[in-house]
UniProtKB/TrEMBL annotation:
The chain crosses the membrane at residues 31-51, 57-77, 107-130, 137-158, 178-195, 225-245, 257-275, 282-298, 304-324. It is a multi-pass membrane protein. Coiled coil: none annotated. This is Autoinducer 2 import system permease protein LsrD. It is found in: Cell membrane. Pfam families: BPD_transp_2. Its main location: membrane. Keywords: Cell inner membrane, Cell membrane, Membrane, Transmembrane, Transmembrane helix, Transport. InterPro entries: ABC_transp_permease. The keyword Metal-binding does not apply.
Length: 345
């Protein structure tokens, strides 16, 4: 007489979707929770100087430049490419604008020329990449070339005294710094474009699976180039805002630009493989970096610790992205296997 088989508990199927939902929440909304916790921690640790309106404006203003460049990186990454030429584009656009202003050209024309140079550089990068070249190598080469061209325009020096640009740099409107308005407008327009327009949705789709988009009859290459163009435009805008804040245009292409922008994008959970991301999360990523630097400064901690913290956050965000993606894949596979088992039963 054989013993009865031990009873096995068959999952109901509700636990798997719930686990997936929790992981997706961490991926898509976790950065907002993280920023809230950081704000709460610094509010107590740096009381009473941190949790004030004036300090909030300081953080927003400090995050503005990183946010602009992070938007450029984010647009490129969502399209499936990584544009490393942003510092060179920013330096070239700033020096071109500075040269035009110094030579008596109208401010508006000089700014338009600087922004147009970013569009042209992005278009050039995109067209070269379409020839089959690696985008990282192409943009590194462009970065080097643009840094040299910016130095040629400036004659190895800088363009000082650009006080005509302060309206978009150091000036305040209703007590709010001008760069904060620029960032708000940029991210509002960018978010609407990505989520409410046909071209924006297609751009994200190309980043996710360019071949599938191509087979559906959509010109995928056009949207890859568009991603480079938007990235170049954001870089040029960042260069002009930098020049407006410092009232000078310098040919130096600072590597910290791309480092901070990449960190903000990685914190936002934007997949470096493309096809997934959110500009509001990118903005919060930039705000987190500025918040940490601000809080440590108030406490009198040496500035290099902010750099250490930034690097640790970057590694942690990449690790979290891997854990979440693996967890979601495993849960979905378990759910699929469960469905097959039920059908067989």
């Amino acid at each position: 007489m054989t013993a009865p088989a031990a009873e096995t508990t068959v999952p109901t199927g509700h636990d798997v979707p719930r686990a997936v939902s929790a992981l997706l929440f961490v991926r898509d909304r976790g950065i907002f929770v993280l920023w809230g916790l950081i704000l709460l921690a610094f509010s107590f640790w740096c009381a009473p100087y941190f949790a004030t309106l004036d300090n909030a404006l300081l953080i927003a203003n400090a995050a503005a430049l990183t946010a602009i460049f992070a938007a450029g990186v984010g647009f490129g990454v969502m399209t499936g490419v990584l544009d490393l030429s942003l510092p060179g584009t920013a330096a070239f656009a700033a020096c071109l604008t500075g040269w035009l202003v110094t030579n008596g050209q109208p401010i508006w024309l000089s700014l338009v020329a600087g922004l147009a140079s970013g569009v042209a550089i992005g278009l050039l990068n995109g067209l070269i990449v379409l020839r089959g070249f690696n985008p990282i190598i192409v943009t590194i080469g462009t970065l080097s070339a643009l840094s040299g061209l910016a130095a040629v325009i400036a004659g190895g020096y800088t363009f000082p005294g650009l006080t005509g640009l302060t309206f978009m740099g150091t000036d305040r409107y209703l007590g709010v710094p001008a760069p904060v308005y620029i960032v708000a407008l940029l991210f509002l327009v960018g978010t609407v474009f990505l989520t409410r327009t046909r071209d924006g949705i297609r751009l994200m789709a190309v980043g996710g699976n360019a071949e599938a988009v191509r087979r559906s009859g959509i010109h995928a290459d056009r949207y890859k180039v568009l991603g480079f163009v938007i990235s170049g435009l954001c870089a040029a805008l960042g260069g002009l805002v930098t020049a407006a804040i410092t009232t000078e245009a310098t040919p130096e292409a600072s590597p910290s630009i791309i480092f901070n922008a990449l960190t903000a994008v990685a914190l936002a959970g934007v997949a470096l493989t493309g096809g997934r991301g959110s500009l509001p999360r990118v903005l919060v990523g930039a705000l987190i970096l500025a918040t940490i630097a601000n809080g440590l400064t108030i406490r009198g901690v040496q500035p290099y610790w902010a750099t250490v913290t930034t690097g640790v956050l970057l590694l942690a965000s990449l690790l979290l992205e891997r854990i979440v993606q693996t967890g979601v894949s495993n849960r979905l596979m378990s759910s699929a296997n469960l469905s097959v088992h039920r059908k067989q039963v």
